[in-house]
Design a protein that fits this description.
The complex is a heterodimer of chains A (486) and B (188). With 486 residues, chain A is mainly alpha-helical. Chain A contains 16 helices and no strands. Chain A has one domain: Formate dehydrogenase/DMSO reductase fold (Up-down Bundle). In chain A, helix 2 runs antiparallel to helix 15 and helix 3 runs antiparallel to helix 4. Chain B is α+β, with helices and mostly antiparallel strands and 188 residues long. Chain B has 2 domains: 73 residues, Alpha-Beta Plaits; 67 residues, no CATH class. Helices cover 44% and strands 13% of the residues of chain B. Chain B contains 5 helices and 4 strands; from the N terminus they run E-H-E-H-H-H-E-H-E. Chain B has a 4-stranded antiparallel β-sheet, with helices on one face. In chain B, helix 3 runs antiparallel to helix 4. The N terminus of chain B is likely disordered. Classes of the chains: A mainly alpha (486), B alpha+beta (188). At the A-B interface, helix 1, helix 6, helix 8 and helix 16 of A face strand 2, helix 2, helix 3, helix 4 and helix 5 of B.
Amino acid sequence: MADLAIRDPHVSPVLVEGNPSLHEVTTDVAQIVEGINRKVPKEWYMALALTGGLTMILFAMLGYLVFTGIGVWGNNQPVGWAWDITNFVFWIGIGHAGTLISAILFLFRQKWRTSINRFAEAMTLFAVACALIYPLFHTGRPWRAAYWLLPLPNTHLSVWPNFRSPLVWDVFAVSTYATVSALFWYVGLIPDLATMRDRAKGLAQKIYGALSLGWRGSARHWRNYEMAYLILAGVSTPLVLSVHSVVSFDFATSVLPGWHTTIFPPYFVAGAIFSGFAMVVTLMVIARWAFQLQHLVTLKHLENMNKIMLATGTIVGYAYATEFFIAWYSGNPYERFTFINRAFGPYSWAYWTMISCNVISPQFFWFKKLRTSIPFMFILSIFVNIGMWFERFVIIATSLHRDFLPSSWGYFVPTYVDMLTFLGTFGLFLTLFLFFVRFLPMIAVSEVKGMMANEAMHSAVHGTAHGPDIHAPAPVSEPVSGGLHK
Amino acid sequence: MSVHTNSPELKDKSVYGVVAEFQKPEDLVAAGRTIHHHHGYKKLDALTPFPIHGIDDAIGVPRSILGYIVFGCGLFGLLNAIFMVWYTNGYDYPLVIGGKPVFAWEFSIPPMFELTVLFSAFGALIGMLALNGLPRFYHPVFASTGIECATDDRYLLVVEASDAKFDIEETPKLLSELGAVRTEVVAK
């Protein structure tokens, strides 16, 4: 095994550890779904009981809201937008890391994305599902929301949605984002569903067979498939940048000091990627440990994600500084007041929580020792999740709570319904995740194997070293012959 | 052309083709290239667990035309968005809001962009499936032994019986010479 030390410089040996064969990679991932000895671990049921309970709380709170009215939330003048939009932006932002990994890193040919993209894309879908609850339910009558949000001919209103409003743009951006993310995810799943089909028996085989649409892995399939994947990555890249830009327009096109700034779109996009990577790290650290995937999701993957958090966290810190500079430089007294009030007013506790979590904490990732320490990155990623929630809360609540007239000043306090609804969305998010890891391969097996085979082929062609023998075991199904099928 | 000796029941017309198993992608590409470019076989296919670079060229699979389909879909989405905004806000029920014009391209950009992306993405998925002839739950190669390895770690080369050069005796022999560890004739 001495020759493994010298390998092709294009090959990053830490992306897959322990030189498993291709068959072992398939088995390692598929076994999680199939269950070791076809049995589901009882920890899964325990986790589901907990997250399912939280989801029930969410449904109860939403039911209470529908029957009572949106007055059950703490929103009121002057803070008319509060936790509902904070949580909406928070969840949408989380999703952005998934699309960044699946689309942008694909276009940049970042091989390390292959082990984590499926997982991160699933996170995107579930986060967007949680986010969509808020715009739907803040209408109070979600069954009528379609008429208000989409240009459907109707006799309820007789008028159409106003396309000059960024809120309508938001509907288009977020619903397109949810749909395209789901399509991209499904396209990526098709070959792996076929793998699951070929390993399964009975009902599972029929279900995976139906979902994989009869995929054979033919060269003609792959050629169209790769083109479809490239196109989806190509359209998702500007899409993900547009989604949070449009979300930021909800604020930036208003005339409110603290919201009305041109840096919002890039600032929001950087923050979204920052928070999304933090959530991927939080969940991935747990999942790779729980499902024994340390050889496929290596420290290198986690370190790369931490580097992205460092970069985007620094961009976010720079954006905070720019906002303050512009508030001072504009000479506008309202603008200046808003920012001084943000840092030293009644919500200063929220502001400094945000600064500590988002600006200071990622700077620890400059040190290699810290960004490769699993307990440290886990704790830090949770800090970033908290910090990014506070960022949205600070932007929304502190800009609203001291209105232009001091007689209209107020202080927003959430109700228990606000809090339990938010808690419940975590339950929904994690429940969907548990179903995902239980029923679908959480690592893109065909992509990981393709990467391994290409690297092995590459090192063989260049003669730099004998790559690991990834084609090692697995008996030939029949002896060499021209015989017929049985 | 005679019927294979081992299988009196399998007549020429009921043969779909030969499936040959290779253990490494580079063996598959080399065999495919030889049989296509040197021996002149044309009706070839490869079944692999992941896309193999160089196989398209080796067995003569042309470039995908999906890009043109998606471009059409994207354009259709864009035109839809322009029409939607103009018809609803500018023509059917114009309302003056904030002194802004009832229709202008500037505020139509977000819906225009989003619908272009949305229609392109559907075009990419549905176009890919349509070009691949999917969903199709039955295919003759599914009957071959060890087909389940083609989504795991084996590489299969398929030579269809409809190929002018196909011979039920010679083709499997040739494939074995080219490095196949196993060959098998499959029925239609």
